[in-house]
Amino acid sequence: MLRSMFSAISGLRAHQTKLDVTGNNIANVNTVGFKSSQTVFEDTLSQVIRNGSSPTAQSGGTNPAQVGLGVKVAGITTNFGQGSTQNTGRSTDFMISGDGFFVTSQGNETLFTRAGSFDYDGVGNLVTPDGAQLMGWMAQDGAVSSNGPIGPLTIPFGQVMAPEPSTRGTLTGNLSKDATAGTQAQSQMTMYDSLGGAHQITLAFTKTATPNEWSLAVSDENGAPLATTPSTASVTFDPATGVPSIGTFSFAPSAAMAPSWRDPATGLAASPDIDISTLRQFGGKTALTPDDVDGNAMGTLQSISLSNDGTIVGVYSNSIREPIGKLALATFANPSGLSKAGNTSYRVGDNSGQAVIGEAGSGGRGSLTAGALEMSNVDLAEEFTGLIVAQRGFQANSRVITSSDEILQDLVNLKR
To answer: Nearest CA to 263 among 231, 295, 291, 290?
Structure first.
């Protein structure tokens, strides 16, 4: 008689645990990056009333008679399925599509999370709402190497990008073969000196009376002519292919420009190159386009953007985009073995395996999306169904205890 009561008590405990897990899932239905859990039951030991026997020549075999002693919680597993996407528009909100965890540092402990809602602290570190630092690799000289150790990612707002002098430029397009003598066409290139000063370099073509020949003059923003090497007094185009006789030439900055226009490698006065090898003389309209002009003015960091491989790109006031760092992602052989650390974070568990840290989009790691968050993967319909099942299971086990108690009461009343 008492076996049924103790079995029912174990059922009450197991279903209470299921209710606890279900209640926690429902409570976190709107928690960013939360992963729901499921309760798995298994029966406990069974008491053997009669052993089984194997068949013989004179009699058949018998099965054992066993009475179970209740139920227990076999495990509480975590469902790491992908949660739904919520677009936020915030540049520091990141979402992992696929496997992987963000790596964070809290004190001396390394933690892992799927919640990608980050912000800046007072010194520009990317941090979680509870202050853990987001980890990755910082750029060195405009390049990011993921081969070194990871560290906190810091966005250096206000950082100044030094100016770079222009050393080359390309002019592409077409000079019409049908142009008459005296026809002019010109194009301007914005080039920068060593201090970041902008200069408008004008290339002016004038059709001469000689077939397939154009004169070329190079001048600065003040109209002062600039000397070229080799001389570009005239450019002749092949009448069959339209290819110019000059591929590349260099110009010498004017006396006013020269002091602030130096070659960064030698420190000597610069002689920027102009490539006109792709310029052609074909039939049709004349159209000149400057292209691939290097150099830049001074710039300051204004905002960031994130690429799918986790690279944080800085956007500077001079319109240049340059890598600042790259987020690190971690994967585990058994994510379900991770130990929950609170604040939607996990720590390495005894059965999770060690963290394998690398770049997004490689080694089985998912890609990253900026301006979006991964929401909880809790399915309310499933949770409410589980809630009903747990409630009915609890009620049924309660009924077993009540029925056993009534039978025991009848047994006690036999003496009356």
So the answer is: 295
Report field, pTM of the whole predicted structure over 0.70? yes
Of the ranges 52-61, 157-166, 198-207, the best mean pLDDT one: 198-207
State residue 287's pLDDT score: 94
Q: Do 179 and 280 fall into the same domain? A: yes
The predicted-structure confidence for 236-249, as pLDDT tens digits, reads as follows 999 999 999 989 99
Give me the residue label for tokens 């650390």: 341
Distance of CA 14 to the CA centre of its chain: 41
Do 272 and 191 share a domain, yes or no?
Answer: yes
Q: Where are the beta strands (DSSP E) in 19-143?
A: 37-43, 46-50, 65-68, 71-78, 85-87, 94-97, 101-106, 109-113, 119-120, 126-127, 133-138
Whether residue 68 is found in the same domain as residue 102: no
**Percentage of the chain modeled with pLDDT above 70:** 98
Determine the pLDDT at residue 416.
Answer: 62
Indicate whether 55 belongs to any domain.
no
Last residue within a domain, chosen from 236, 271, 291: 291
Q: Looking at residues 283-289, what average pLDDT do you find?
A: 92
Taking CA atoms, 399 is separated from 8, 12, 395, 403, 413, in Å, by 9, 11, 6, 6, 21
Question: Which residue range(s) make up the domain with 356?
Answer: 88-155+300-373
Same domain for 231 and 281: yes
Cis before 230 (ω within 30): yes
Same domain (yes/no): 346, 267: no
Amino acid at 6: F
List strands edge to edge, sheet with 198-207.
184-192, 198-207, 213-219, 234-236
Residue 188 belongs to domain with CATH number? 2.60.98.20
Ranked by mean pLDDT, the top range of 59-63, 64-68, 133-137, 304-308 is 133-137
Would residue 56 count as lying in a domain?
Answer: no
